[in-house]
Amino acid sequence: MNFFSKYLIGGEFKSFGDNIITELDVIKYWNDFPDGHKANATVEFVDTIDAPQQEYIEDRGDCGVFICMFMEMIVSGVPVKIDKPRRAARFLYRNRMTNIIWDTI
């Protein structure tokens, strides 16, 4: 059984979604929001088919690069295009991340 089938039958991903609000209590996340905000909070998982993905090669160390580029896509609202092979994309993504980090310091 893979993660997606677990999610569909209410397994691992569902339990994470059910518990995330409680986990936010532990770190006092809600303290910076007005009263009642927590009651309206919802957690929703969305399947994304166009997310940048790394090649599956053990110990490559690319997962963080691809996760950061996916988060950049979410934050900026601009799709991260993959018009290059994944092997070449990882170098382009690392370069882009470096530019983003050093331009904001």
TrEMBL record:
Descriptive protein name: Ubiquitin-like protease family profile domain-containing protein
